[in-house]
Amino acid sequence: MPRSFPIIWIAAFLVVIGVELFIIDNLDPYVVAIIIYAGINIILASSLNLINGFAGQFSMGHAGFMAVGAYSGAVVTMAFRDNYPAIFNEPALQPFVFIAAIFAGGLCSAAAGVIVGLPTLRLRGDYLAVVTLGFGEIIRVILLNLESVGGARGLTNIPGITSFFWVYGFVLICLFVITRLVDSPLGRSFLSVREDEIAAEAVGVNTTRSKVTAFALGAFFAGMAGALFAHYLRVLSPAIFDIQKSFEIIIMVVLGGMGSISGSVVAAVFLTIIREALRPLQQITGTDYRMVIYSLVLIVLMLTRPRGLFGTKEITDYLPERWKARFGVRRVSPKES
Amino acid sequence: MPAALQASDVTMQFGGLTAVSQLNLTVDERSIFGIIGPNGAGKTTVFNMLTGVYKPTAGRITALGHDLRGKRPFEVAAIGMTRTFQNIRLFKDLTVLQNLKIALDNSALAPKTGVVANVFRLPSFLRNEDAKVEKALSLLELVGLKERHDYAARNLPYGDQRRLEIARALATGAKILLLDEPAAGMTSLETEQLMSTIRTIRDSFGVTIILIEHDMQLVMELCERIAVLDYGKKICEGPPAEVQCDPKVLEAYLGCKKEG
ipTM, 2 decimals? Predict the structure, then answer.
């Protein structure tokens, strides 16, 4: 078997199919909902990590990209349903319409990423954060005033196509592409921009292109996550994609570790579950302490692990040496002297 | 010998301040050229103009047959001219090897592969990556850092960081290497080693080297020609022996007025 053969990924995909076929129908719908939201959050967190963690561009507008993807994806499927019902209602063809809608969401969002990326390239750190925050708000306000997508009432009656299989299928695609890009010339150019932009230019990295690409890629996957989200929730309203949502995603990235995809995955799952897991507490105490505990957990974690759960390491870094070669781990993490 | 680098009447003004004024430089291919001068003479400004960090207010720079007008630093690097920095600029949290790989990714020394090949790790990508590692290790051997290739750059001792920066500059496939105070902060033994490394680089890679340095022993022993800057103007140029005795140079450095 060639050492590049993605055996782990294929195995993971088979697991996803297996779960969809044999397990998911037996689970409580509430549990399924949490699993699906966890998957969507994994895509959101790892795509934001590409921008914030790897390319070092602190973006606070990820909910904006998600919104663009959600609305444009939903518009595509709804247009198909209303104009070509024959194609849309054909079970063999519907998945293709759905895939097209998700990609449409991703591409629209990537276009938004380029539009935000280009003018903000001269900005760094806090200034960039403020501008991207503004961008997220602009998207929300535009949607709020766009009557063709329902305005403040929101977009309703979106076909509910998203299932466990779709979400985790796209989680795998997203993680596959991101983890492999990170360990390629493009990913290294992101890292060089994060580490030292002037040095990166001096050794031949086109930092403008790297930054725009990072924004476009991150936005692309966020758009896909948005489209999956839209077809699960079946109603969209601009209020969903507020600053709060952007911050939720940022917290996942920071908690997991800026520059660690494994960290984003773990943090996304952990934070999605903990909010629901704390619900019984509310019944016992009679008061909603959930956000208090949620915040305390975050504070304690950041105090004990200031660089996030994983820092810049990946789960594969902890594998024994002989396993690394077998699993095609190419990445080397720096040795401490 | 043909000129690797030529600057004609290059001027750099920051508002009312003229940092460099009507500078003319011609550097021969495969030579080691020194730029010296008191602090604030404009030496680093010259490097910044040569590499496209600053756009000269006036004048023209050509390197390796290319006009550098309007070129950004990464384009200058692609032409074959790269620099090191006075205050070392490494990719600190990355490994020594990754530092070199980033340079190799953008260099003519290694072929480029497409995004699809990279994501699916096609044989072309893997071959290319292996070739980059091999190339990087051979460059690290040259500067004596091969054993430390998996250290984070920030964990290297100061002298090693300077050497790594030189190796990284070479990894871009540069034909002209601009070294900004390569010996700063080095012990005399380290400086000694550095000089032999610089000579090796020139001889085995056919690289033209331009360096800014305050260590006079290094400059005088290593450089074939030296230009002296003072207040943004070139006050003297020639072989080391000539420059050392030039009264204008003595005045610039020691500030004494010649009598008579």
Answer: 0.93
